[in-house]
C-alpha cells in the first residue's frame, strides 16, 4: 500500500503536512490540560461507564488522565486476551484502561503523532505495570501517523480490535486511516471508535481554521460519507452506537461555523469474511460478558437480553458469527430481514437508525441548524 503524501494538498488547498504540524503544536504545546479546550467536542461523554471500567480508570496515573482530550471512554465489550490498537492514543489514558481489561495475556498498542503526548504515556509504563500487578508490561506506545501504520511496523491482520477516541477527524485523509485499520485487523475484527461528525460538508473557512482543527471540528466528516468510505474500504455497514450534541461556547468560532451542526458519535465497523455472509438469522445471547451479563446493548438498533430470541438481519448475523462475540451467542439460520432493523437504503421496513443527528435528537432536542433541516433528516437515503 502506498504511503500517504504528507506534503500533498487536500481538496481545500491545505497541505497535509501543515495540518499535521498545526495539530501537533496544538496538542503538544497549547493544550496542557482538558480545561484548555474551547469547545466540548473533545470531551463529550458517550454512554454510562460499567463499574469494571470505572475501577480501571481509578488506577490510571493522574498526569495521564489530565492530558486526556477524547470523547468519553471508548471501551468495547468482551476484551479478555485481545490484541488492541489505539489510534491517536495521546497521553495513553484509554490504553492503560484497556491494559487492565485485556489482562496480562492481552496486548495494547497506542500510536500518536505528537511526541509530547507519547512521552507522557511512555513515562508511566513501569508505574502501571506495578499498579496492575503484572510481571511484564502489556502496553507499548509508538510515535507515527495512523494514515500509514506500516511505517511503525504494524503488520497485516495483527489486531483483534482497533479503537480511536475523537482523533480520526484530525487526520486529513480519512480513507487512508480506515484502510490501514482494515489492513491490520484480523478477519472478524472490529474497529470501535468515537469521532466528530458534521450535518453537512464543511465550508472552506471552517476547514482552513487552525483552532477549529485543534478543537476537532475543522476535520469533521459529513456523517453520510462515513458509510460510503467504510463500504469502499471493505468494512461491514457502520453500526451506530451513541450520539451526543456538541456545543461551541465561543462567539468567534460560532460565527465561522455558521449553520453547521456537529455531533460526537460512536460507531463500530467489522471486517466480516465472505464465508460468514449467509442470510438473516435468530440469535440468543448466552450472557457471560462482564458488566453485561443480563443485557448487551450492541448498538442503537440491537439490544440482546440473556436467553431471549432475537431476529437479526443478514449483516448482524454475519458480524456475530465471525467476531469475538460468536461464543457468547447461539446463532441459527432463520428469521427474516423484515423482522429486524435493516441497513441504510434497503427499503422502508423498520429501517436502522443510521443518522447520528437523528439519534441524539431522540434523546434530547437538538439546536436548530440548517435552513433545509439538515440536522437529522428522517431515514438515511
Automatic annotation (TrEMBL):
Gene3D superfamilies (alphabetical): 3.40.5.100, Vaccinia Virus protein VP39 (3.40.50.150)
Top-rank taxon of the source lineage equals Eukaryota
Molecular function as annotated in GO: arsenite methyltransferase activity
UniProt KW keywords: S-adenosyl-L-methionine, Transferase
**Any one cellular component term from GO for this entry?**
cytosol
The chain positions of domain Methyltransferase read 81-233
* A Gene Ontology biological process term: methylation
First-tier enzyme category under EC = transferase
Q: What is an example of a Pfam family matching this protein? A: Methyltransf_31
Q: Which residues cross the membrane?
A: none
Q: What is its EC number?
A: 2.1.1.137
Catalytic activity of the protein: arsenic triglutathione + 2 [thioredoxin]-dithiol + 2 S-adenosyl-L-methionine + H2O = dimethylarsinous acid + 2 [thioredoxin]-disulfide + 3 glutathione + 2 S-adenosyl-L-homocysteine + 2 H(+); arsenic triglutathione + [thioredoxin]-dithiol + S-adenosyl-L-methionine + 2 H2O = methylarsonous acid + [thioredoxin]-disulfide + 3 glutathione + S-adenosyl-L-homocysteine + H(+); arsenic triglutathione + 3 [thioredoxin]-dithiol + 3 S-adenosyl-L-methionine = trimethylarsine + 3 [thioredoxin]-disulfide + 3 glutathione + 3 S-adenosyl-L-homocysteine + 3 H(+)
Family classification: Belongs to the methyltransferase superfamily. Arsenite methyltransferase family.
Fetch the PANTHER family from UniProt. Answer: ARSENITE METHYLTRANSFERASE
Q: What is this protein called?
A: Arsenite methyltransferase
Q: What organism, scientifically named, is this protein from?
A: Coturnix japonica (Japanese quail)
Amino acid at each position: 500500500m502506498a504511503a500517504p503524501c504528507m506534503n500533498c494538498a487536500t481538496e481545500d488547498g491545505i497541505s497535509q503536512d501543515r495540518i499535521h504540524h498545526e495539530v501537533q503544536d496544538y496538542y503538544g504545546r497549547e493544550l496542557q490540560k482538558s480545561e484548555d479546550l474551547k469547545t466540548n467536542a473533545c470531551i463529550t461523554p458517550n454512554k454510562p461507564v460499567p463499574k469494571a471500567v470505572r475501577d480501571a480508570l481509578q488506577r490510571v496515573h493522574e498526569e495521564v488522565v489530565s492530558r486526556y482530550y477524547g470523547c468519553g471512554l471508548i471501551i468495547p465489550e468482551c476484551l479478555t486476551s485481545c490484541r488492541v490498537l489505539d489510534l491517536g492514543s495521546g497521553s495513553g489514558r484509554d490504553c492503560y484502561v484497556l491494559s487492565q481489561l485485556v489482562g496480562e495475556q492481552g496486548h495494547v498498542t497506542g500510536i500518536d503523532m505528537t511526541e509530547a503526548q507519547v512521552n507522557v504515556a511512555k513515562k508511566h509504563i513501569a508505574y502501571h505495570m506495578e499498579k496492575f500487578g503484572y510481571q511484564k508490561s502489556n502496553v507499548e506506545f509508538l510515535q507515527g501517523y495512523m494514515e500509514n501504520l506500516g511505517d511503525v511496523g504494524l503488520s497485516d491482520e495483527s489486531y483483534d480490535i482497533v479503537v480511536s477516541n475523537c482523533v480520526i477527524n484530525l487526520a486529513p485523509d480519512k480513507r487512508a486511516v480506515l484502510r490501514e485499520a482494515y489492513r491490520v485487523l484480523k478477519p472478524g475484527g472490529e474497529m470501535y471508535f468515537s469521532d466528530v461528525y458534521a450535518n453537512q460538508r464543511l465550508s472552506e473557512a471552517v476547514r482552513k481554521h487552525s483552532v477549529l482543527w485543534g478543537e476537532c471540528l475543522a476535520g469533521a466528516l459529513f456523517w453520510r460519507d462515513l458509510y460510503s468510505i467504510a463500504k469502499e474500504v471493505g468494512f461491514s455497514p457502520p453500526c451506530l452506537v451513541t450520539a451526543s450534541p456538541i456545543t461551541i461556547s465561543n462567539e468567534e468560532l460560532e460565527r465561522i461555523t455558521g449553520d453547521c451542526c456537529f455531533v460526537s458519535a460512536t460507531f463500530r465497523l467489522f471486517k466480516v469474511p465472505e464465508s460468514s455472509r449467509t442470510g438473516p438469522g435468530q440469535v440468543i445471547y448466552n450472557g457471560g460478558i462482564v458488566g453485561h451479563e443480563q443485557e448487551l446493548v450492541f448498538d442503537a438498533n440491537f439490544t440482546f437480553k440473556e436467553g431471549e430470541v432475537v431476529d437479526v438481519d443478514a449483516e448482524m448475523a454475519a458480524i456475530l458469527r465471525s467476531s469475538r462475540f460468536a461464543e457468547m451467542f447461539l446463532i441459527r439460520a432463520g428469521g427474516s430481514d423484515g423482522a429486524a432493523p435493516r441497513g441504510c437504503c434497503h427499503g422502508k421496513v423498520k429501517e436502522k437508525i443510521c443518522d447520528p443527528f437523528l439519534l441524539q435528537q431522540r434523546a434530547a432536542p437538538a439546536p436548530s441548524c440548517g435552513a433545509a433541516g439538515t440536522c437529522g433528516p428522517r431515514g438515511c437515503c
